[in-house]
C-alpha cells in the first residue's frame, strides 16, 4: 500500500464534512425537540427526533436570537438547517439557521417553495407589471361583502373621490374554497370589462387566515388578468404571494383605496388649473381666429373690385401727377435750352455782330473824341502856357514897355551895327506900328 493513500482521522472527517455539505446543503426538517440545553455561551444544543430516528442539532447564538421564542422539550418545530459533521467526535449533526413552531412553519415552508417556483417562472418580473390608469372612473373590489376591509375601502373612496363608480365582487377570503372563489371573480371581472382597476384583498390576520392569498391558483389568476390589480392583504408587515404577483402592492386595504383614487381637493385644484389652461387656450384660439378673420377681411378689402378701382385710380392720379411734373420739368429744361440756344444764336447773329461792333465803334469813336478833346485840352493848356511864356519873352511885350525891334530887309533882328550898312533900308517895329527908315550914318561904340 502506498503511503500517499493513507488518511488521518482529521482528513477523513474533513472529507466527509465537505461531501455532506456539497451533496445535501440546506434542508427543511420537522421534528420534536429533546435534550434541549442552553449553556452560558448562548448557543442551543438539542436533539431533533421523530418516531424512529434522531439527530443531534446546534443553533448558534447569532441565529437563535431571531427566532422570537424559546424552544421546549417535546415541542414540534420546523427548522431550516445545513447538514455537516462535527469533526472532533466524527458525528454528523445539523446546524440550524431558522426555527419556527411546526404549524406555522409548514405553511411558511410551503410559502417559500411556491414563492421560489413562481419567481423562477417569471411571475414576479417587473416587465409584466401593468401601470394604473391615469383616469380611473370605475373600481372593482374583490373581497368579503361583510368584512371590515370593504367598509374601509368604500369610506376612503367616498371621502376622496365621490365620483368613482364602485363594483363589488363578493367572495370568501378565508377557508379552503377562498382562493378558487377569488380567482373566479378575477376572471369574471376581466370578462365583463366594466371597471378600470381591481382591488383584491382583505383585513389582517394570522398566516393561516391569510393563506388563501398564498395559493397558486390565485397567483396565476392575478398574473393572467388583463385588468391592473392592486393587492391589499392584511397589514403593512404581511406579505403574500398575491402581493408579489399583483401589479401594485398596497400595505393595507385603506392604502389601496388611496392609490386608486384622487383626492377631491386635489381634483378641484387640478380642475381649476385645467380651467385656467382651457381659458388661456380659448383666448389664444379666439385671438388666432380673430387674426385670421382680420387677415381675410383685409384680403377681401384689398381684392374687392372697388378697392382695385380705387387702387387703379390712385395709380392713375399718381401717374398723371408724375406725368405733369415730368412735363413741367421737360418744358423747363427745353425753355432753358431754348434760352441758351437763343443767346448763342444772338451771339453769332450778323445783326448782333453789327450791333456789337457798332457799339464797339461808337465806344472807340467816343474814346477817340475823348482822347482828341483831352489832347486839345492838353494842347490848349500847353499853348496858353507856352504863349504866356512866349509873351514874357516876346518883342511885342518889350514893345509894350516902350521898346522897339529893328529888322533888316531879311527880317532879321539887328543886334549890332556890324549887321547894317549905310543906305540900307530897315524897319522899326513899335507898339503902335512900323517905321521904315534908311541908314545914313553908322556910329560904333568904343570899347573904352
UniProtKB/TrEMBL annotation:
InterPro entries: Exonuc_VII_L (IPR003753), Exonuc_VII_lsu_C (IPR020579), OB-fold_nuc-bd_dom (IPR025824)
Record domain Exonuclease VII large subunit C-terminal: where: 123-437
Catalytic activity: Exonucleolytic cleavage in either 5'- to 3'- or 3'- to 5'-direction to yield nucleoside 5'-phosphates
The keyword Transferase is assigned to this record: no
Compartment(s) of residence: Cytoplasm
Cellular component per GO, a single term: exodeoxyribonuclease VII complex
Molecular functions per Gene Ontology: exodeoxyribonuclease VII activity; nucleic acid binding
UniProt entry tagged with the keyword Cytoplasm: yes
Domain of life of the native organism: Bacteria
Main location: cytoplasm
EC number(s) stated in the UniProt entry for this protein: 3.1.11.6
Domain OB-fold nucleic acid binding: 7-100
Entry keywords, A to Z: Cytoplasm, Exonuclease, Hydrolase, Nuclease
Pfam families: Exonuc_VII_L, tRNA_anti_2
GO biological process: DNA catabolic process
HAMAP family referenced in this protein's UniProt entry, alphabetically: Exonuc_7_L
Subunit composition and interactions: Heterooligomer composed of large and small subunits.
Protein family: Belongs to the XseA family.
Role played: Bidirectionally degrades single-stranded DNA into large acid-insoluble oligonucleotides, which are then degraded further into small acid-soluble oligonucleotides.
Protein name: Exodeoxyribonuclease 7 large subunit
Organism: Gilliamella apis
Taxonomic lineage: Bacteria, Pseudomonadati, Pseudomonadota, Gammaproteobacteria, Orbales
